[in-house]
Write a structure and sequence with these properties.
Structural class of chain A: alpha/beta
Shape of chain A: globular
Distance between the termini of chain B: 28 Å
Largest sheet of chain A: 5 strands, mixed
Number of helices of chain A: 14
Shape of chain B: globular
Radius of gyration of chain A: 24 Å
Helix content of chain B: over 70%
Strand order of the largest sheet of chain B: 1-2
Order of helices and strands of chain A: HEEEHEHEHEHEHHHEEHHEHEHHEH
Structural class of chain B: mainly alpha
Oligomer: heterotrimer
CATH superfamily of chain B: ABC transporter involved in vitamin B12 uptake, BtuC
Chains: A alpha/beta, B mainly alpha, C mainly alpha
Mean pLDDT of chain A: 81
Distance between the termini of chain A: 85 Å
Number of strands of chain A: 12
Strand content of chain B: under 5%
Radius of gyration of chain B: 21 Å
Mean pLDDT of chain B: 84
Largest sheet of chain B: 2 strands, antiparallel
CATH class of the largest domain in chain A: Alpha Beta
CATH architecture of the largest domain in chain A: 3-Layer(aba) Sandwich
Number of domains of chain A: 2
CATH superfamily of the largest domain in chain A: Nitrogenase molybdenum iron protein domain
CATH topology of chain B: ABC transporter involved in vitamin B12 uptake, BtuC
Strand order of the largest sheet of chain A: 10-9-8-11-12
Order of helices and strands of chain B: HHHHHEEHHHHHHHHH
Helix content of chain A: 40-55%
Number of helices of chain B: 14
Strand content of chain A: 5-15%
CATH architecture of chain B: Orthogonal Bundle
């Protein structure tokens, strides 16, 4: 009884459902193809872009993107590190209500800011001629099509975005600066190799961990990601057992470490990124923190939150190497 | 006596029409205002010219691709969520019921979170995938709550519906916390924005996707106004009708879930509309669902559209999720209602 | 309590006697309650010992014993036991009792079996205060943030109470809940807005996820006297709460000054749940589930429900914390989530099994 009466609405529902699918597919395709044609830079834009020199590239998510030959007004939010390393200035920089990427401000000081979530109209107001976007989630849900209507939009995709070397080369390619990008990379590798040799001489066989203090809690960097990649891979420093153990089961760049584990941290040297400096860093007066071997022996190097340790990219990595050369090798 | 009744009845009807007309006019005004607000300044004349087919390419882009679809979507989800809330309040005979209570928001939110956290996208995910998943997640949660609360021969127990809703919501919230601590800040930001109700689907394809649900389910619910009147009273008569009641309950619940699920899939969790719009409507036109439902739909649409307009401008150039504005506007009003009530 | 009852107006018989008679007829099982409390306390002691011995650092049981009774500050293991595990476990106990008793008092006073301290805006008030701190006072030391969280919780509860009782017709359970739910929704939305705008959402989540791990001796020292006082107050009020739970009319008929009782009860809830929430974050299921379970086991007399809830709540949180630390080492699962995951199936079972609708 109940079943038979349920059929009609069920049918209606499934029709509605199908039409939702169809509508979404149909218009999705439509706007995809339209994007290429309509996306010529808005009339207000500067140079009458040399159209023959446009190159077609496929981005990290499989979109065909017509990249302008000489983009002048680039927005590459949260990818500014790469642009700075290539000597390119975007028209706007990533920001949240309470800040920007401080370690890049030498190069980006007076640049206007754009909210981190890239609202459509805010992007349009800068008249960009090229958008470069890092992560998949930033364009999730049809947002790509809308950005593509403003300007050619190139998404690196999570895989490239999470590896700064790949991201650097890819962005170099997009900006027609592959040679420069390769040079930045080579310079960094050479610098890192030099530093590695010096560190080996200065502190042979010693282990190092990077610890981040924020809101009274401690995090350690993964042994493979972010600044961990610089420490353990590029500079060949030894990762303490505790760091390895935490990284094996944690997914983040920085993983929470309980105070109990911290007391167990068997590193010879500690790099401390202190975001609690302004609040007096009460956690550092804790008896337990003071009993960590590296702290006891005075082998802690502290950096402010404005330093590059919480970021990754060619400029960030290079600054980290500088920090270590200056403080540990001396 | 009879004449008196019909006179008061007629007066009520006239009032309902008047209220509906005023609400529609308000919607029209806010619509126009919303068309003219945004980071990029367009004068009303530019807007008119663009609407008439003129305007620069950039003006067309802003108006037709960015602003209009968003406004239309906010209207649709406002109406959908509000009516869904009205139906759920009647079904559960609980003035505090809204689509969130049967797990739609938390179910949809959890699915979106899991998708963002664990789906390594090798290529662009199709635009419809996420709303589809959210729809499925919300529907599954509602179905779970429903199955737990349904008893053969006895139908749907409104108390159980709410209790199980609370339980399922807390369970989903717990899993959400555990998962969200493991994702990176960018993913977290996306999910948090989604859960705060950002109306993130902003182009015409979402309008098209939403339209069939609204176009079918809204009239269906309106058609069932009488049944809702009976259910809302929760009289012995309703239970006396036995199987009839339980079947109608099931159908109406499915309609409410379909409405709210599709809206949440497009907008993210916008919580307060389903609660507040029916209350507002009840104050304006009384308990009769024939008048209550259309007025609920209109006030929900007005509320969300106005909130979305505020969300666009209040922290320019940043945008804040519409759901937050809805709550910030709706909650004080609700408290005021509470204060005024006897 | 003599203070909260007044002389009956009718026929010479003192109201106290009449109330005693009424309470006598209640469906209550004191003997079960005594057994439960004793057994619960024993189980609590056992799980305290267990919890102190387990953790990220591998420490032998002998060493644990020595650390507790012959503390040697030079030993790392002793430090971990003394500085981290002991305060944490004791904190869990305290917080568990607080949430459970606060929930019991709420449920009794509002006659709403779904009431818990979150309903009167405590959790959202604390969250909102913390969001404000993280966004606008990023430099504020941890302990002040906790303090402000408590202030936020207390303020929002006061606001809910004021809103609920400023209505014509006075404070009714329904109004209290309505005002609480609405204010919570508002504060939660505003916290979300701040978190998104300042991009501190995950910090906020981490703040609460840390939970009981932040419990140190200092926090305990500050919290314990207040919580002890409030727990004693709840016990003292328990008889009046039982009367209230019979309904406003009945309570008044028995000569109860219901306004006074409600005011005191709310103050107790604010102190208990407010300090617990600001210290470890919202662990809501304890306040919902434990009193409910207690009522099922020992009957409807709050003189027994409250102590039983205190013991069972402490036991639940201590065990949940142990599970949260051991289920996915070396990481800690947020204890609120842990308890929800345990509590939800149980709650669903309860909600659907009961003949009598809740």
């Amino acid at each position: 009884m109940v079943k038979s009466k349920l059929k009609v609405p069920a049918l209606l529902l499934s029709i509605a459902f199908m039409s939702m699918l169809l509508a979404a597919c149909g218009s999705g395709n439509h706007s995809n193809t339209a994007a290429g044609n309509d996306a010529s830079p808005p009339p207000a834009s500067t140079a009458p872009a040399a159209s023959p020199a446009q190159t077609k590239m496929t981005d990290g998510l499989g979109h065909e993107v017509e990249v302008p030959a000489d983009p002048q007004r680039i927005i590459a939010s949260y990818l500014e590190d790469y642009l700075v390393s290539l000597g390119v200035k975007p028209v706007a920089q990533w920001s949240v209500a309470n800040g920007t990427q401080e370690y890049l401000q030498d190069s980006l000081k007076d640049l206007p800011t754009i909210p981190y979530d890239l609202p459509l109209e805010a992007v349009t107001s800068f008249d960009p001629d090229l958008l470069i976007i890092g992560s998949n989630s930033a364009v999730e849900g049809g947002k790509y099509d809308q950005y593509a209507k403003i300007a050619p939009t190139f998404v690196l995709g999570d895989e490239v975005n999470n590896d700064w070397r790949k991201a650097l080369l890819k962005i170099g390619e997009v900006l027609h600066k592959s040679d420069e990008a390769q040079k930045v990379l080579d310079d960094y590798e050479k610098k890192a190799a030099d530093a590695k040799a010096k560190l080996e001489a200065a502190i042979p066989g010693k282990s190092v961990a990077a610890v981040w203090l924020v809101q009274g809690k401690f995090y350690v960097v993964s042994d493979k990601l972010s600044s961990g990649a610089v420490l353990y891979k590029d500079l060949g420093l030894k990762a303490p057992e505790v760091v390895k153990e935490i990284s094996a089961s944690g997914a983040g760049n920085w993983n929470a470490i309980s105070l109990e584990k911290l007391a167990d941290l068997d590193a010879d040297y500690l790099i401390l990124v202190n975001s609690d400096k302004d609040s007096g860093s009460a956690a550092l007066n804790d008896a337990l923190w003071k009993s960590v071997p590296a702290v006891k022996n005075g082998n802690v190097y502290e950096y402010p939150k404005s330093s590059s340790w919480l970021y990754y990219g060619p400029v960030a990595s290079s600054q980290m190497v500088d920090n270590l050369l200056k403080d540990i090798v001396k | 006596m009879g004449a008196f009744m019909s006179e008061s009845e007629r007066r009520k009807r006239r009032k309902a029409w008047l209220v509906a007309a005023i609400l529609s006019a308000a919607i029209a005004v806010v619509f126009v205002v919303s068309m003219n607000t945004g980071v990029i300044r367009l004068s009303p004349i530019d807007v008119l010219r663009t609407l008439a087919g003129g305007g620069t390419e950039r003006q067309q882009l802003i108006l037709f691709d960015f602003r209009l679809p968003r406004i239309v979507i906010s209207l649709l989800i406002g109406a959908g969520l509000a009516v869904s809330g009205a139906v759920l309040q009647a079904l559960s005979r609980n003035a505090l019921a809204d689509p969130g209570i049967i797990g739609i928001n938390s179910g949809a939110g959890l699915i979106v979170l899991l998708f963002i956290a664990y789906y390594p996208a090798p290529a662009a995910t199709p635009a419809y995938l996420l709303p589809l998943l959210a729809w499925a997640g919300g529907g599954a949660a509602a179905a779970l709550v429903f199955l737990l609360s349904y008893r053969r021969h006895k139908g749907l127990s409104s108390n159980r519906l709410i209790l199980n809703g609370v339980a399922v919501n807390s369970g989903f919230a717990a899993v959400t916390i555990v998962v969200s601590l493991r994702i990176n800040p960018e993913q977290y930001q996306f999910v948090a924005t989604w859960m705060a109700g950002s109306i993130w689907g902003k182009d015409w394809s979402y309008v098209l996707a939403l339209l069939p649900f609204i176009a079918i389910l809204l009239p269906y619910v309106l058609f069932k106004s009488r049944t809702l009147n009976v259910l809302n009273l929760g009289t012995p008569m309703a239970t006396g009708l036995g199987a009839f009641v339980s079947r109608e309950q099931v159908l109406l619940l499915a309609a409410a879930v379909g409405l709210a699920g599709s809206c949440v899939a497009v907008s993210g969790s916008i919580g307060f509309v389903g609660l507040i719009a029916p209350h507002l409507a009840r104050r304006l036109v009384g308990q009769r669902y024939q008048a209550l439902l259309p007025v609920t739909a209109l006030s929900g649409a007005l509320l969300v559209m106005a909130a979305d307009t505020i969300a666009k401008v209040i922290l320019q150039p940043a945008e804040i999720p519409t759901g937050i504005i809805v709550a910030a506007v709706g909650a004080p009003y609700f408290l005021y209602l509470l204060y005024r009530s006897k | 309590m003599a203070a909260t009852t007044r002389k009956g107006r009718d026929g010479g018989q003192p109201a106290g006697k009449k109330a005693d008679d009424a309470l006598h007829k209640l469906h209550s099982r004191p003997r079960t309650a005594i057994v439960l409390i004793a057994a619960g306390a024993a189980a609590l002691l056992f799980s305290l010992a267990l919890s102190v011995s387990f953790g990220a650092m591998d420490i032998k049981f002998r060493m644990v014993w020595e650390a507790v009774f012959h503390y040697n500050p030079d030993l790392k293991e002793h430090q971990v036991i003394q500085e981290l595990r002991l305060p944490r476990v004791l904190g869990c106990m305290l917080v568990g009792s607080s949430f459970a008793v606060a929930g019991a008092v709420m449920q009794g006073m509002t006659r709403n079996p779904l009431a818990d301290s979150g309903l009167i805006g405590l959790n959202s008030g604390a969250t909102f205060a913390i969001a404000l701190c993280l966004a606008f006072l990023p430099g504020l030391p941890y302990r002040y943030v906790v303090l402000l969280a408590f202030v936020g919780a207390a303020l929002s509860a006061a606001l809910v109470f004021a809103l609920g009782s400023s209505v014509r017709g006075g404070l009714t359970p329904t109004r209290l809940v309505l005002a609480g739910v609405t204010l919570s929704a508002l504060l939660t939305a505003l916290s979300e807005g701040i978190a998104l705008y300042f991009r501190i959402g995950q910090d906020l989540a981490f703040w609460f996820a840390g939970g009981v791990a932040n419990m140190r001796w200092l926090e305990l020292k500050v919290m314990t006297p207040w919580i002890a006082l409030a727990l004693a107050g709840a016990m003292g009020l328990s008889r009046s709460i039982t009367m209230l739970s019979l309904g406003e009319e009945v309570a008044r008929g028995l000569g109860l000054r219901s306004g006074l009782v409600k005011g005191l009860g709310l103050a107790i809830v604010v102190v208990l749940a407010g300090s617990a929430v600001s210290a470890v974050g919202a662990v809501s299921f304890v306040g919902l589930l434990v009193p409910h379970l207690a009522r099922k086991l020992v009957g409807v007399d709050y003189r027994w429900i409250i102590p039983t809830s205190a013991v069972l709540g402490a036991l639940l949180v201590v065990l949940a914390d142990l599970a949260a630390r051991t289920v996915h080492p070396p990481f800690e699962t947020p204890i609120g989530a842990m308890i929800s995951l345990i509590g939800v199936p149980f709650f669903i079972y309860l909600a659907n099994k009961e003949r009598r609708e809740l």
